[in-house]
Amino acid sequence: MEEQRQTLKQMPEHIRKKFEQKKQEKQIDQPTTESVDILKSLKHDEQSKSDDKKEKQKKKLSKKSIIIISVVVALCVVGLTVGLVLGLLPRYTKMDSPQVNVTSLSDRTIVSVDANADAVIYEFVLQAQGEQQQSIRSNSPSLTLTQYLKTPGVYQIRARYIGENEAQNSDLSEVYVYQYYQTLQTPNATKQDDKLVWERVGMAGGYRVYYGTNDGALTFFTVDQPSSDTQTVEFNLSQFDTLPAKNYFVYVQAVGLQDSYYVDSDLSTVIEYANVKTLATPSDVTYNRSENLLTFTYDDDLVANLVFEININGGLYIYKTNVKGNISIDLMPYINSQSVNNLLIRALGDDVCLLSSDWVNVTVN
Description:
The chain contains four helices and 25 strands.
C-alpha cells in the first residue's frame, strides 16, 4: 500500500483529484485492490491523452513543414521563371547625348547631330529669349531651322536621341547658343520727278543712297528713318547738284539698327540717273576786227577741258583749251581773209549730261 501512496504522490494534481473523487464514489476509505485498479485506470488514461497530444503536435509540425517546403519550392519556381523571362527580354542601353552643330547657308540654316543607329527619332529643342520652348521631332538627324526661327535674337538649341524603348533615350545635349540675324527687306525705290521714293522698311534705322559710275566705286548719302506714321521715304535728287555732270547708277539700302539682330538689306534695283548740268555762258566777249582777235572770260568748273563752238558768218568752228579765265582766240585760221559780219560763241557740252551754254552774239565793228 506504501507503493500506492508513492505512485499517487508522483501523479499530477488533477490526477490525484480524480482519484479521490473516484474513491468517494466507490466509498473506499483504505487502499484496496479496487483503489489500485482505479489508479491504474487514471494513469492509463493520462498516458493515452499524453500520447494523443504528442501525436497531434507531430502531425501539426508535419503540416507546417509541408507548407514551408511548398512555399520555398514556389519561390524557387517563381525566381527561376522571372530569371528566364528577364533573360529572354532585350537589354536596352541608354544612348550618349549628341553634340549640336549649326550650319548657315545662303538661303537657310540647318541644325544637325551625328546619326545614331539606335535612334528612331531625333528631338531638337529651341528656345529664344522671352519665348516658349519649341520641341521638334524629326526622322532625320538634320533639321532646317529657318521655319522655326520666329524673331531675330539669341536661341538656345539642344537635342537628344529617342530610341524604341524609353530606357534608350539620351539626355538632352549641352546648349548650343545660336544668334539669328535677319536681313532687312530690300527697299522698292523708284524715281518720281526729282525724287527717289520707296516704302518705309520696318526695323530699319535709316537708309543709304549709293551712287557710282562705270569708272568708280560706290559712295552714298544717308537718309534718316522717318517717324512710324510715315509710310513713304523720299530722297531729293538735288543733292546730286554738287557732283559732276554724269550718268549715275543709284541704289537704295535699308540699314539695320545699331546693336540689333537686323542686318543691312540688299541693294535695291538699280536706278539710272543723269545728273544734267548746263555750261555757263562766256562773258565779256569782244571782237577786234583789226587783229581778228576774239576775247572773253570763262570760269566754269564743270569741266577741266573747255570746248567752244564759234559761228562765223554761219560756219561752225571748234576751239579747245584747258585754260580758264581770260581767253583770246585768233580767228584768222578760221576766216581765210573773209570779212566777219556775224559772230557768235558758246561753251559746247556733250549733249548727254553736260548741256551747251546759250549762244553769245558778238558785236562786230
